[in-house]
């Protein structure tokens, strides 16, 4: 994946493989004998990684424990992504490899879950003979039953999408965790229908999770020593809890229900108040929905990190219209300006698609100039990949030649590297507060962490530990990191 190499992001790199391993001691509150072994790999966005923790919880309640040895597994789940063709190709390659596992263990059950499962439905069972089980993102409560069906000698599938499911009361098993930072899912689905995007089809209608269950989950995390939560949704700013059901029904709700509804700024405040020393992050924001109320709430609470991931997708108003993003270039830039007016220290990152249907050189130049004007701290950058069933696939032509998509993407990546480096240089000589979240990959003598603005910081470990908040004086920088020393 081109983008993950160039972007710094608060989440795991997209398409990284997460091997879930759960210490047996916290695995299951129920004493089981003959626990079956479950191995899960997660692909795609943070929502999928968060879902795997819900799947973990459901399966642990039904007699499974986790293994990080795929050859020792009774059940292998791939929690998949469908956002671009190459994401699905990766899964097909992985499934080919898994043939070997199945040869060694005839009883092995292989399940495909997540967005690719939802998109391809029973086709997956037909095309990929190896797959025994298919489950979409709203069908995870059904997984133990689906596994039992396979054990009875059948193929099993549930790809029903729900208007209500939020897994609100399921307490996710924190898998592969550093014990410092945790995802908290606050909503599911998306109602936006950007013309290029498959998510509304794979994750269904937008629905928000009960605010009280979110706050309770954050309290539990805080009590367990977590130092940071990341509130997740495809479109967090449109969060609206009013007692359940899709947001579209809100207008028919009674005045009483409306008066008690919780909006995203209110939820942010409730979460920020759980523990003033716990960092709060959120992603992703749609430019059309992020409100002044959200910005003022961010400003009001020191523990809400000053970083907004605000995907523009393109700098050309004509293309933004074709993408059905519902804002123009000028509107985006005004939102960007407003964020910085309210919070001058806020960092803003972006997603960009190169080579969307009918994109001209002129459109591409407008994207580059938007990036220059906004000086994004970092971006995820992608080549447009047509997704069957989307508005763009039905109504538009994927007419930008592959070489042009690639050369434009290279220019976009080159520009972003320059902007990231310039932005990072502005930290030299300054002291930033870092939450240490791991050892540096290059040296065990260094810690890494992130500052409030989500820039990666590396500094000598000295006497500090993972989980500490450390003030670091920045001495030098690269495109992707700030490097410095801890100061007392
Ligand atoms: N809900 C988030 C994005 C979710 S998908 C939002 O609206 O911002 C993450 C990113 O993948 C998108 O922002 C977009 O840049 C990219 N993406 C989505 N569909 C794509 C496609 N068909 N081809 C290339 N990139 C795509
Ligand atoms: Fe896809 Fe648009 Fe929804 Fe994001 S807001 S998930 S890009 S449809
Ligand atoms: Fe991929 Fe589904 Fe996320 S398509 S990006 S895993 S919502």
Oligomer: single chain
Helix content: 25-40%
CATH architecture classification of the largest domain: Alpha-Beta Horseshoe
Report the portion of residues in β strands: 15-25%
How is this structure best summarized?
With about 500 residues, the protein is an alpha/beta fold.
Which short descriptors sum up this protein?
488 residues, alpha/beta, Rossmann fold, pyruvate-formate lyase- activating enzyme, OB fold (Dihydrolipoamide Acetyltransferase, E2P), 3 domains, five-stranded mixed barrel, 17 helices, 21% strand, globular, binds S-adenosyl-L-homocysteine, binds iron/sulfur cluster, binds FE3-S4 cluster
SSE layout:
Layout: H1 2-6, E1 18-19, H2 24-27, E2 36-42, H3 46-60, E3 64-66, E4 75-80, H4 85-104, E5 109-114, H5 115-120, H6 122-127, E6 133-135, H7 143-151, E7 156-158, E8 181-185, E9 187-188, H8 199-203, E10 207-208, H9 211-223, E11 228-232, E12 240-241, H10 255-259, E13 262-263, H11 264-272, E14 279-283, H12 292-300, E15 307-309, H13 317-322, H14 329-342, E16 347-354, H15 361-374, E17 379-383, H16 391-395, H17 402-425, E18 431-439, E19 446-450, E20 456-460, E21 469-477, E22 481-486
Parallel strand pairs: 2-3, 2-4, 4-5, 5-6, 6-7, 8-11, 11-14, 15-16, 16-17, 20-22
Antiparallel strand pairs: 1-2, 9-10, 12-13, 18-19, 18-21, 19-20, 21-22
The structure holds S-adenosyl-L-homocysteine (SAH), iron/sulfur cluster (SF4) and FE3-S4 cluster (F3S).
The site of FE3-S4 cluster has 13 residues, from helix 3 and helix 8.
């Amino acid at each position: 994946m081109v983008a993950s190499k160039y972007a710094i992001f608060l989440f795991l790199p997209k398409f990284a493989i997460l091997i879930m391993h759960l210490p047996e001691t916290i695995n299951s509150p129920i004493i089981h004998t003959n626990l079956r072994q479950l191995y899960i790999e997660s692909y795609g966005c943070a929502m999928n990684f968060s879902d795997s923790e819900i799947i973990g919880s459901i399966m642990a309640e039904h007699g499974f424990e986790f293994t990080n040895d795929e050859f020792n597994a009774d059940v292998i789940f791939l929690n998949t992504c469908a956002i671009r063709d190459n994401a699905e190709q990766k899964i097909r390659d992985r499934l080919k490899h898994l043939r070997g596992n199945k040869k060694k263990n005839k009883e092995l059950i292989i399940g495909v879950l997540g967005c690719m499962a939802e998109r391809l439905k029973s086709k997956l069972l037909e095309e990929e003979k190896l797959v025994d089980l298919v489950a979409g993102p709203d069908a995870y409560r059904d997984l133990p039953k689906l596994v039992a069906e396979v054990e009875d000698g059948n193929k099993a599938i549930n790809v029903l999408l729900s208007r209500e499911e939020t897994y609100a009361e399921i307490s996710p098993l924190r898998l592969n965790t550093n014990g410092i930072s945790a995802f908290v899912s606050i909503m599911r689905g998306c109602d936006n229908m950007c013309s290029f995007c498959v998510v509304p089809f794979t994750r269904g209608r937008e629905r928000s999770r009960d605010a009280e269950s979110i706050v309770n989950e954050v309290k539990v995390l805080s009590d367990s020593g977590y130092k940071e939560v990341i509130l997740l949704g495809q479109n967090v700013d449109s969060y609206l809890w009013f007692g359940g059901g899709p947001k579209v029904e809100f207008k028919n709700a009674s005045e009483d229900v409306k008066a008690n509804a919780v909006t995203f700024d209110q939820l942010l405040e409730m979460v920020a108040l759980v523990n003033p020393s716990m960092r709060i992050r959120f992603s992703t924001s749609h430019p059309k929905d992020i409100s002044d109320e959200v910005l003022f709430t961010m400003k009001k609470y020191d523990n809400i990190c000053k970083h907004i991931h605000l995907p523009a997708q393109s700098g050309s108003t004509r293309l933004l219209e074709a993408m059905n993003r519902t804002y123009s270039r000028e509107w985006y830039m005004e939102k960007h300006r407003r964020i910085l007016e309210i919070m001058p220290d806020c960092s803003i990152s972006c997603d960009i698609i190169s080579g969307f249907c009918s994109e001209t050189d002129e459109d591409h130049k407008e994207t580059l100039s938007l990036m220059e004007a906004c000086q994004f701290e970092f971006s995820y950058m992608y080549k447009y990949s047509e997704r069957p069933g989307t508005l763009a696939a039905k109504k538009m032509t994927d007419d930008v030649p592959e070489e042009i998509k690639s050369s434009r993407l290279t220019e976009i990546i080159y520009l972003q590297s320059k902007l990231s480096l310039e932005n990072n240089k502005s930290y030299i000589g300054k002291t930033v507060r870092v939450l240490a979240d791991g050892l540096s990959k290059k040296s065990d003598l260094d810690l890494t962490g992130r500052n409030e603005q989500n820039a990666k910081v590396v500094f000598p470990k000295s006497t500090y530990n993972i989980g500490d908040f450390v003030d670091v004086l920045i001495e030098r920088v690269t495109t992707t990191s700030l490097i410095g020393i801890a100061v007392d």
